[in-house]
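ugh finaly. both done.
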Amino acid sequence: MPGACGIACEICVLHEKEMCPGCPPGTDPKAPAFVEEMKRECLSCPVIECAVKNKVDYCFRCEGFPCDIHYQAAFPYTNALLDTWKRSLGK
């Protein structure tokens, strides 16, 4: 199942390297609890936090995508790929 970023955790190199625990879609009823659990473990992910806050399941479905959150994080997408999407979407 894809995380809020839109990448399937099963094929994500960040997940394989244990740099990302994987997450539910932002609209999943379990997502707010997941964000709070991460915070209790002193972890944070601006991607899932934003998806929950803006009530979108995946970043691709957000009107603001690509946004500063992805550009600042520099993962899971490179800035070059974000720029390509931005041009394709006419932003």
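ok and the 2nd:
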Amino acid sequence: MGTIETSLIEAKKDRRGRKITPRAEREALVKEYRESGLTQRAFAEKERINFTTFTSWVQEFKVGRSTAIGFAEVSSPSSATPASLEARLPSGVVVSGQAVEVARLLQLLRC
């Protein structure tokens, strides 16, 4: 009969003793969750991940969500009245109208 060799790899932990999961592993788990058909809670329980932690990972890798911070060009058109505002978004979309409404829309788009 042969011998079996094993080794224990200890996960990295933060100062509070919590396991640090690398970004690539988090992303792979979220992808696996999306393909599983399970609820977030059921998947987190199956993988033994804290539910709140897992939901934050799902948000982090939300489809179509850019994590990059960008700038938008904001200017006051020459033909505009003092209370109007025009904003050119990084996508090229131009939003113009009353300053308060445009500012509120830009604030909502940040979410």
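summary for the 2nd one i guess: Residues 73-110 form one domain.
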